[in-house]
């Protein structure tokens, strides 16, 4: 009975996802606790050219934004398609999960997820080539994210071969 | 358990009311005691909700009870008696009008469901009831209406006060002999079972008396933008005074209320509205959604929800809904001249955000008429603000690309900083050398004292703003420089000077400066109303900054009040513990000291808050009076675009912050909104007061 009644007050857009940060210093329980209290969102699938101003404009629609940290390529130190948005209140962050997640920024459908909290170093991509892991292995061509995935780029023009 | 479920469902899914009343009816037919207990439990719940100011929920409970009459659970005469008790509230003296309003509203809004049955059993009493209601409605004061209307024009659709509209609808229903065909009534199919059931009498229900802290719902205006001429093919839209229109709108509002947090579910539920084949459902949905978005003082839910909900609806009905939405947008554009400024703000924000999800595709050429009129008129102003917001969500060149070349004058400036010291070719400008010195000092991480010395000698602020941009590391330096009111005003002026083509940056910097206490809220208000900013006065970003500033002030006061409450709670707990432990006197002393300090802090914050509103209202009065006097002496019409904007911005302050302003009504009336004021300005204040009467 209570399961059915809970369905009536459902708020599924605010639930935490399956993703857990592998570099998180602490156990699963601690991470989940932080995620459930967090005011910080991870934002993914951004174009490399999306600016902090654009992110600020969009995410301000759900409340006052405290700060934005643009994700950077570890080697090139340029934007690599993700960012963190921190709100002053949990309620404002929840509104973003409900109403901004899954809508477009720079013509791309962006994805938001709870983050346990920004720590120095987390603004860098964790892929081997410096960007995000997802850009290492993908096979599609995405002009807003550096073209082909890194692995696919190497396959297309492998080192040490003349390509006339 | 079934009782709990049905009760919960009654509260949570009011749009499915008749399904649950039928269920209760069938259960009552089987088990008379169940019915009795259920009704008793509902009455208890009704008392609770009224005690806790949950008036909107209470409406659904009463409606549920009234539909139980149709299911033979409650005897009609006892329902009539309850309604009679409700209407007797209109005879009470010295109570706010909104109190009587609510009781009248509850009774009228139940009649589409149960009017027929009640009239069949007790027509004399019902006639008396309706005539009492009519008397009340005739006496009712409606000063508040202009403040709540979305458009000032009566055509094409009058913006009716909600009780007037409902009364007209019930009158028409009565004329139609209570024949109502829209509501789904499952109990009709079970009539043979239900009519055998024993009915219960409602216990006599006295409405709880008026309490001074009661918060009755505010009056509303019924938003209408479509009528039967607008849906080109298919079923016809029920008329504005038909009871069907009322029921459809009620149910759609209920669906949004139930599912607003989950946009996919909400959209699906709206589109699967029962009986949708008999009505132009897409038009009703769009009208109800815009009605909520434009509701004054504020929408029932956060603005961005409506944008996302409309996108979801477009996804589910790609062949029909986008066209209705485009038609609605076109209509809203055409009526901008008489649209309330606050509503125009929301339209700007909605439309630009919506476009950003659809590659900014729009037939701008259809709006070429806006290019031929004065740029301060509502239509070109609207387009300009939309393009500015579109640019903020994308980039300048994108906007240049999406509009026809004829619209060039309305395209926003490229958002770069304007800093004359940045251009090296200006090396002959005084201060250039200093700028380089300071920049180098900052880059070399000179101490704050060293930088302060340099700056104080020359009082040059632009370099700091230019270099810092959004990185606010040197706020300690700035704080010292801006201790005086003059200093605060100066830094705000400099921020504007440097970033005047980048309004978003100005807003961000002002926000940061308030949070780091470099400037205070009153300084920001004074700056926005200053002569320097007069040419920007009608731009949207100015008002976004002002409202954001007021909100920060309000949140600050609330935060300290909360800290005080928490400290008081802690002290109380300590005092309970004291009986058991002996060495907590020290702690208690500390807490008492803390409470005293917090009390002072609260008083100081409230004083600052009151002062902020006084500054704002004073400035409005000065500007408006000046304009009115100037027009009068020059025998010129007062209704310029500037005046319309300004007077509606004054209204907006009252509406958006009405909860806070309530506390300071005495001061406002004594100091500012006195009888000597021009009646145009005083009218706004009187309309605001009428909202609470």
From TrEMBL, chain A:
PROSITE patterns per the UniProt record, alphabetical: RRM (PS50102)
Region feature (Disordered): 122-164
Transmembrane spans: none
Gene Ontology, cellular component aspect: nuclear cap binding complex; nucleus
Keyword match Cytoplasm: no
Domain RRM: 39-117
Classification via InterPro entries: NCBP2, NCBP2_RRM, Nucleotide-bd_a/b_plait_sf, RBD_domain_sf, RRM_dom
Single GO MF descriptor: RNA cap binding
Pfam families on file: RRM_1
Functional summary from the UniProt entry: Component of the cap-binding complex (CBC), which binds co-transcriptionally to the 5' cap of pre-mRNAs and is involved in various processes such as pre-mRNA splicing, translation regulation, nonsense-mediated mRNA decay, RNA-mediated gene silencing (RNAi) by microRNAs (miRNAs) and mRNA export. The CBC complex is involved in mRNA export from the nucleus, leading to the recruitment of the mRNA export machinery to the 5' end of mRNA and to mRNA export in a 5' to 3' direction through the nuclear pore.
Alphabetized PANTHER family for the sequence: 20 KD NUCLEAR CAP BINDING PROTEIN (PTHR18847), NUCLEAR CAP-BINDING PROTEIN SUBUNIT 2 (PTHR18847:SF0)
Family: Belongs to the RRM NCBP2 family.
Subunit structure: Component of the nuclear cap-binding complex (CBC), a heterodimer composed of ncbp1/cbp80 and ncbp2/cbp20 that interacts with m7GpppG-capped RNA.
Entry protein name: Nuclear cap-binding protein subunit 2
Organism, as annotated: Myripristis murdjan
Lineage, broadest ranks: Eukaryota, Metazoa, Chordata, Craniata, Vertebrata
This protein's encoding gene: NCBP2
Automatic annotation (TrEMBL), chain B:
Bias (Acidic residues) ranges: 584-593
Keyword ATP-binding: no
Main localization (coarse): nucleus
Keywords noted in UniProt: mRNA capping, mRNA processing, mRNA splicing, Nucleus, RNA-mediated gene silencing
GO MF assignments: mRNA binding; RNA cap binding
Region entry Disordered, spans: 569-597
Compartment list: Nucleus
Domain of life: Eukaryota
Domain MIF4G residues, every copy: 1-174
One GO term of the biological process aspect: regulatory ncRNA-mediated gene silencing
Biased composition (Basic and acidic residues): 569-583
Family designation: Belongs to the NCBP1 family.
Protein name, as recorded: Nuclear cap binding protein subunit 1
UniProt source species: Myripristis murdjan (pinecone soldierfish)
Gene for this chain: NCBP1
């Amino acid at each position: 009975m209570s399961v059915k009644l809970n369905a009536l007050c459902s708020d599924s857009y605010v639930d935490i996802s399956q993703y857990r940060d592998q570099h998180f210093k602490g156990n699963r329980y601690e991470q989940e606790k932080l995620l459930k209290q967090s005011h910080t969102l991870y934002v993914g699938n951004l174009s490399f050219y999306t600016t902090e101003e654009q992110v600020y404009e969009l995410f301000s629609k759900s409340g006052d934004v405290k700060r934005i940290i643009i994700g950077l390529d570890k080697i090139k130190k340029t934007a690599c398609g993700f960012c963190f948005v921190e709100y002053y209140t949990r309620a404002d962050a929840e509104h973003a999960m409900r109403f901004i997640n899954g809508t477009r920024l720079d013509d791309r459908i962006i994805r938001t997820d709870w983050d346990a909290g920004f720590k120095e170093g987390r603004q860098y991509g964790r892929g081997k080539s410096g960007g995000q892991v997802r850009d290492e292995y993908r096979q599609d061509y995405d002009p807003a994210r550096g073209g082909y995935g890194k692995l696919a780029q190497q396959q297309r023009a492998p080192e040490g071969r003349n390509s006339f | 358990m079934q009782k709990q479920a049905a009760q919960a469902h009654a509260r949570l899914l009011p749009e499915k009311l008749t399904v649950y009343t039928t269920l209760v009816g069938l259960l009552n037919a089987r088990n008379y005691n169940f019915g009795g207990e259920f009704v008793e439990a509902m009455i208890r719940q009704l008392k609770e909700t009224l005690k806790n100011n949950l008036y909107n929920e209470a409406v659904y409970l009463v409606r549920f009870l009234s539909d139980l009459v149709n299911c033979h659970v409650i005897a009609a005469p006892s329902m009539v008696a309850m309604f009679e008790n409700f209407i007797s509230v209109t005879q009470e003296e010295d109570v706010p009008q909104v109190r009587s309003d609510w009781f009248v509203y509850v009774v009228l809004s139940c009649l589409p469901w149960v009017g027929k049955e009640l009239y069949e059993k007790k027509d004399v009493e019902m006639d008396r009831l309706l005539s009492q209601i009519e008397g009340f409605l005739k006496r009712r004061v409606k000063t508040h209406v202009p403040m709540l209307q979305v458009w000032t024009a009566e055509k094409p659709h009058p913006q009716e006060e909600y009780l007037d509209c409902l009364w007209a609808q019930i009158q028409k229903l009565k004329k139609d002999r209570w024949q109502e065909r829209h509501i789904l009534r499952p109990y009709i199919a079970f009539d043979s079972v239900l009519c055998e059931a024993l009915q219960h009498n409602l216990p006599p229900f006295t409405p709880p008396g008026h309490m001074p802290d009661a918060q009755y719902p505010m009056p509303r205006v019924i938003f209408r933008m479509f009528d039967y001429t607008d849906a080109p093919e298919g079923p016809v839209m029920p008329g504005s005074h038909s009871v069907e229109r009322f029921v459809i709108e009620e149910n759609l509002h209920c669906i949004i209320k139930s599912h607003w947090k989950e946009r996919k579910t909400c959209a699906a539920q709206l589109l699967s509205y029962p009986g949708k084949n008999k009505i132009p459902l897409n038009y009703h949905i769009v009208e109800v959604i815009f009605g909520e978005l434009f509701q004054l003082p504020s929408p029932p839910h956060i603005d961005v929800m409506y944008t996302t909900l409309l996108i979801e609806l477009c996804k589910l009905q790609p062949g029909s809904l986008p066209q209705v939405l485009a038609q609605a947008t076109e209509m809203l554009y055409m009526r901008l001249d008489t649209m309330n400024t606050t509503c125009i703000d929301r339209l700007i924000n909605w439309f630009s955000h919506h476009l950003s999800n659809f590659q900014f595709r729009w037939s701008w050429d259809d709006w070429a008429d806006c290019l031929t009129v004065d740029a301060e008129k509502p239509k070109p102003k609207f387009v300009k603000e939309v393009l500015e917001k579109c640019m903020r969500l994308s980039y300048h060149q994108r906007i240049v690309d999406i509009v026809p070349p004829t619209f060039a004058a309305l395209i926003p400036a490229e958002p770069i900083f304007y800093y004359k010291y940045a251009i090296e070719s200006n090396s002959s400008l005084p201060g250039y050398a200093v700028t380089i010195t300071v920049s180098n000092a900052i880059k070399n991480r000179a101490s704050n004292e060293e930088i302060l010395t340099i700056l104080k000698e020359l009082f040059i602020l632009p370099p700091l703003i230019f270099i810092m941009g959004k990185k606010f590391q040197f706020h300690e330096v700035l704080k010292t420089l801006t201790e005086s009111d003059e200093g605060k005003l100066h830094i705000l002026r400099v921020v504007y000077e440097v970033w005047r083509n980048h309004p978003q940056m100005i807003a961000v910097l002002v926000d940061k400066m308030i949070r780091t206490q470099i400037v205070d809220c009153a300084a920001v208000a004074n700056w926005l109303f200053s002569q320097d900013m007069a040419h920007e006065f009608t731009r949207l970003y100015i008002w976004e900054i002002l409202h954001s500033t007021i909100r920060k002030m309000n949140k600050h006061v609330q935060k300290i009040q909360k800290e005080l409450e928490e400290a008081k709670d802690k002290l109380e707990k300590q005092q309970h513990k004291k009986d058991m432990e002996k060495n907590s006197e020290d702690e208690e002393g500390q807490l008492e000291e803390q409470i005293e300090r917090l009390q002072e802090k609260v008083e100081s914050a409230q004083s600052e808050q009151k002062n902020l509103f006084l500054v704002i209202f004073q400035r409005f009065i000065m500007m408006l009076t000046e304009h009115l006097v100037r027009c009068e002496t020059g025998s010129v019409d007062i209704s310029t675009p500037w005046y319309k904007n300004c007077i509606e911005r004054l209204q907006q302050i009252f509406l958006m912050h009405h909860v806070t302003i309530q506390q300071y009504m005495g001061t406002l009336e004594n100091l500012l909104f006195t009888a000597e004021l021009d009646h145009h300005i005083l009218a706004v204040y009187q309309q605001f007061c009428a909202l609470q009467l």
